[in-house]
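Hi all, posting the design record for the shared folder.

TITLE: backbone redesign
STEP: 1 of 1
STRUCTURE INPUT:
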């Protein structure tokens, strides 16, 4: 998932430690916090997720001085998803520590205290894992295909795999279709009567296969799709006429942190500058905080400052195609639920124009 890491925030008890510094180098915003219950290396990702890091030797010390268990109680009581990362090897030989005691501590972390225990090889591995968990928690987890994937052994195998994805087509049916039609293209171009000639394909299956191969694609797959649709039809988001100032607008703070605003509009009627953050899923607190940072840092942008210095007010819109009940804390941020079907219609219009332009160039 390729995103701007400057939209991520991690609160940590050790902002000057190596992990925090490396996370900051990646562009993640590091927020110092203070804890009264011990010298812990902790990373607060959200209201429900916290990560505690212990090296192998630190894990052993935690068993001996009992801080491992007091910290586990704290994590369990304050977070729905408490995580313990054990970094590096646990060296039994030089510490003379009983391996059975370590196994007992690891077991109790999970069974008695409900802590998720993860192991990393080194600091770099820990940084990568914390970054990934933060991205998933604050931005979202990319959609995962549930279709098993395997490497094709040869061209016929690759062709069979394509046809196997059609409704009711297993390996045998895919093989028979390819033997009958000769290639993938002719199967795709076949009409229902052509498909009915195949043994094992009835009227219903033929109709389903034909529909899948010929129905126009209707989906909103990415936030860029939303941007494209809104740029084509502003009325998806606004009732009044507006002017597009910029897309994917970059704001660089004095600390050289980079923020990327999806869309920036100017409303000449109300004389307002509007920052728009687009999401495909349900809106949440992290999305609001993300837009809040954009609004707070807007004066750092030369383009946005050219409006603000004239006294033009600024506000934000959180927009999605998913129904949700999220309500912002402040009046300068509003929520807009965009009609998904309308977005799809606009995307189809864009596609049609693009294909017509290609056909004109070819002719």
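Okay, here is what came back for every position:
SEQUENCE:
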């Amino acid at each position: 998932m390729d995103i701007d890491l400057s939209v991520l925030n991690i609160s940590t008890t050790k902002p000057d430690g190596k992990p925090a510094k490396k996370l900051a180098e990646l562009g993640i915003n590091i927020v110092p916090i203070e804890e009264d219950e011990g010298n812990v290396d902790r990373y607060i990702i959200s209201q429900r997720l916290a990560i505690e890091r212990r090296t192998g030797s630190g894990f052993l010390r935690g068993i001996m001085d009992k801080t491992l268990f007091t910290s586990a109680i704290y994590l369990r009581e304050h977070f729905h998803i408490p995580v313990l990362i054990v970094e590096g090897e646990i060296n039994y030989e030089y510490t003379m520590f009983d391996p059975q005691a370590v196994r007992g501590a690891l077991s109790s972390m999970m069974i008695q205290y409900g802590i998720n225990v993860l192991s990393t090889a080194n600091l770099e591995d820990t940084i990568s894992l914390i970054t990934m968990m933060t991205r998933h928690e604050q931005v979202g987890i990319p959609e995962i295909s549930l279709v098993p994937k395997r490497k094709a052994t040869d061209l016929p195998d690759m062709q069979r795999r394509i046809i196997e994805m059609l409704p009711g087509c297993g390996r045998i049916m895919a093989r028979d279709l390819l033997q009958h039609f000769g290639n993938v293209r002719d199967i795709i171009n076949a009409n229902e009567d052509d498909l009915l000639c195949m043994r094992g394909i009835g009227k219903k299956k033929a109709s389903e296969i034909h529909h899948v191969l010929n129905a126009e694609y209707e989906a909103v797959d990415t936030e860029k799709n939303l941007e494209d649709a809104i740029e084509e039809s502003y009325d998806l988001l606004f009732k009044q006429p507006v002017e597009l100032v910029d897309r994917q607008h970059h704001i660089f703070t004095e600390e050289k942190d980079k923020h990327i605003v999806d869309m920036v509009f100017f409303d000449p009627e109300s004389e307002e500058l509007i920052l728009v953050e687009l999401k495909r899923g349900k809106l949440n607190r992290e999305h609001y905080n993300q837009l809040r940072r954009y609004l707070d840092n807007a004066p750092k942008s030369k383009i946005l400052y050219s409006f603000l210095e004239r006294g033009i007010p600024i506000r934000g819109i959180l927009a999605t195609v998913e129904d949700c009940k999220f309500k912002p804390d402040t009046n300068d941020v509003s929520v807009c639920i965009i009609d998904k079907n309308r977005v799809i219609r606009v995307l189809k219009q864009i596609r049609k124009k693009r294909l017509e332009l290609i056909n004109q160039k070819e002719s």
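COMMENT: The chain has three domains: 5-138, 155-214, 223-343.
Let me know if anyone wants the other runs.
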